[in-house]
Predict the 3D structure of the following.
Amino acid sequence: MPDVPTDDSPQNEDEQPGREEAPRRGSRLGATLFAQNVQRMQNTLNSPDLTAAVWRAADSRRATNPTWIQQMRANIEQVDRIAAGYPLQKFSTLASAAAEWDKASSSLRQLVSELSIPRLTAWAEAVGLLGYPPNWPDDIFIREVKELADDEGIPLCWVPRAEVIDVLRKAEPGRRRNILLKHRAEVLDDCDQALNAVTAPELSDYATAARKVVAALRDGHDEPAQAFAMNVVDSTLRGTLFASVPQNRFYKPMVTQIEASRDCVMADFRQSAALWPLLRVFDTFHPDKGDPVPSLANRHATAHTVARVQYTPVNALIATMLATSVVREVQEPLITQQFGELPAEVWCPSEPRRHL
């Protein structure tokens, strides 16, 4: 694993209130970060390179449909306008949001199809306009994802499979941890599958370590797996998503950023949701002040105790799921960056650029 400065002491009381019973969080979804996504979309739609490509596509259509350019421009502007009205908070489920967005973005997908530019198509697929975790049931409610994350730190992004999520979200809170243990074999298979998809060279150390966590859990080494899994989570966060956070006082600003990320838009939803369980797993714990060892999966209690109430089979499984989810999620921005900037050669720059 990459070397990072350590800050493994329990956090101060003012950094995050400790709690065994999680309160219902009321943070909004959709507002502050939305403008950034709209701006990215507008920059793409208004770029001269895209304009030039549209003109080339139009050349083959002009004979049969002289107004095609005007129609396409109107469609693009419609997508631009509609985008500004689609904060995620307007929808109870991602499925309902996806249905509306599919209708709104149909003209943009048509444009991509008309252009027939492989790299543009790859960019559209990689960036995506809706961050929908692929392992989620279509009818899952956002509040259900928040409940499982807030109550018990159970991650749902990338793992586990939809069938297990379905059982978890419909179960009473007191039964969820037993449900995870019942489906332990399937969950570990899901972890392996998710980690096998992590191919970015920058993440090789993290992914390799996470695979070792899964292997240790399969072999029945629950306690070592739990400890290593928490280290994988911590190290991955420090080395990737939160690399800019001061390493000597890491947890308070990290938690603050995760809390703020709940005020997100569709395009940022999946990454935000992948981090929600950390708000439970990174609850403060102060053994020097006599805090009782928590029974729920907790990074600080894992690092600073060997208590049986903390080192349990279900906590080891949750820690393994979280390590998998975080490492797998971190790859997504790397994929997006790969296609975020379209090189000039894609657009045949020898052709003059014209404006719609």
